[in-house]
Every structure is written in C-alpha cells, then in structure tokens.
Amino acid sequence: MPYAYDDQNIFAKILRGEIPNNTVLETDHSLAFRDIAPQAPDHVLVIPKGPYMSYDHFATAASDAEIVDYTRAVGKVCEMLGVAPGNGFRLIANAGEHGVQEVPHLHVHILAGKNMGPMVSV
Ligand code: AMP
After folding, report:
1. Measuring from atom 18 of ligand 1, which residue has the nearest CA?
2. Catalytic residue among 29, 43, 57, 107
3. Is 13 helix (H, G, I), strand (E, B) or coil?
C-alpha cells in the first residue's frame, strides 16, 4: 500500500507556522519541540520537515541529507537536554494503528528526566 501523507495533520501545521510550538532545535531538515502533554520531565518530539508519515516511510524515501540531519538532530537534542551521556532517555517512534500513532507525521519521542519503567505495558 503506498504512503498517503495528510498535509492537514497537526505537525504539518506546525511546520507551516499555522500552530505555535515550543521549539528546542531547528535544523535544515528537522524540527524539535516540546510535547504539549509531557509524559516525563523532558518530553521532546523530533520531526523531519519533509512529508513522511512514519519511521519506515522516512527510512525508505528520505534523502541521505535528510536522514543524516534528522539523526544528528536527535543526538543534538539529547546533548542539549544533558541526558546522553547522562542518566539516559527513552526514544519512541510509534507507527500506524498497532503502534498507536496519533499524528501521522514521523516523530520520535525523547523522554527523559525520570526512570521510564518497563518498555511496554499493554
Ligand atoms: P503519537 O501517539 O506517537 O502520534 O504522539 C503524538 C504526540 O503529539 C502526543 O504525545 C501529543 O501530546 C503530541 N502533540 C499533539 N499535538 C501537539 C502540539 N500541538 N504540540 C506539541 N505536541 C503535540
């Protein structure tokens, strides 16, 4: 099934400047901002600026420049938060229905500042 990106999703609106965000870092191809409903003392979302729905979509369709920029942005945010090296963090990328992804634009969650407990609870 082909990827069908919905440009009306909330992160697309953030990227277009239609909705405010609490920016942590902006690079050529990526944006990091604080989650509006934080689930840890530090809860930052990192998104690519391109129209990618999920990690697998990005990993297969994005350019090398976008992938390098995005990966470096994640590392930079961890450094800015002081969590790596440090007390550590959890990196989550939900995808699709079974991954319980709410916003269909790739984002990784960086959760830090407390012990995040078991990896998965169902
Ligand atoms: P997911 O379930 O992985 O798709 O996560 C979506 C995340 O986006 C949730 O943690 C929401 O709290 C967060 N979120 C939704 N709207 C906004 C917004 N306007 N600014 C920042 N974070 C948001």
Report:
1. 36
2. 107
3. helix
Instruction: Give residue-wise pLDDT tens across range 50-74.
Output: 999 999 999 999 999 999 999 999 9
Cis? peptide before 104, omega within 30° of 0:
no
Residue ranges of the alpha helices (H) in 50-89?
A: 55-61, 64-81
Cα 61 to ligand 1 centroid, rounded to whole Å: 23
Nearest to 36 by CA among 118, 109, 122: 109
Atom of ligand 1 nearest to the CA of 92: 3
Tokens 């634009």 correspond to 105
Give the pLDDT score at 19: 97
pTM: 0.98
Ligand 1 pocket test target in 47, 103, 108 with most atoms within 8 Å of CB: 103
Burial (Cβ within 10 Å: 0-12, 13-18, ≥19) of residue 92: middle
Longest dimension (CA), the chain: 41
DSSP 98: T
